[in-house]
Write a structure and sequence with these properties.
Helix 1 runs antiparallel to helix 2. It is globular and about 40 Å long. By secondary structure, it is of the alpha+beta class. The protein has a single domain, classed as 2-Layer Sandwich (Alpha-Beta Plaits), CATH 3.30.70.560. The chain has 5 helices and 6 strands; from the N terminus they run βαβββαβαααβ.
Length: 157
């Protein structure tokens, strides 16, 4: 079994889509590790605020099959894909890590972990002592050193 961390976000019918995503992930993978849910501003475009969290799963799926499963869940919830990476969306499921794998071609670990507070903070909440793959720093250490840390308040769904 491999531990995978998945970033979950929505800014369209947020509460409903986050709940449905958690239900779908639970059906697909069983027991989940859930971070707190944070409301964050849209990054890179003008849009409604997002709800974001990180979900941990244990899986026997290959990296490719896991990514396809996540895309299928997004599609089921009405995700519309376009050329613009920065746009409103019903659901965004990004595979952040897959075990300790470091593979730049595959984008693992996903570079958004180090770029965005809405990804790193939830990871630091649920896996503070886990090391960022390929480094000697934990998620808690990375969060403590995160530049310009925004105030982030968890919300209850």
């Amino acid at each position: 079994m491999t531990r995978a961390w998945i970033s979950v976000g929505s800014n369209v019918d947020r509460e409903r889509n986050i709940r449905l995503a958690i239900d779908s992930l639970q059906q697909a993978f069983g027991e989940l590790v859930l971070s707190p849910v944070y409301r964050t501003r849209a990054e890179g475009f003008e849009g409604d605020d997002f709800l974001n969290l990180v979900v941990g799963v244990e899986t026997e799926l290959s990296l490719e099959v896991l990514r396809q499963r996540l895309r299928d869940i997004e599609d089921k919830q009405g995700r519309i894909r376009g050329d613009n990476k920065f746009a409103s969306r019903t659901l965004d499921l990004d595979l952040l890590t897959w075990g300790d794998l470091v593979d730049e071609e595959q984008g693992i670990p996903r570079d958004e972990i180090l770029k965005y507070a809405f990804v790193l903070k939830p990871l630091a909440d649920v896996a503070p002592e886990e090391f960022y793959p390929g480094s000697d720093q934990t998620y808690a250490q990375l969060w403590a050193a995160f530049p310009g840390k925004p105030a982030m308040d968890a919300i209850i769904l």
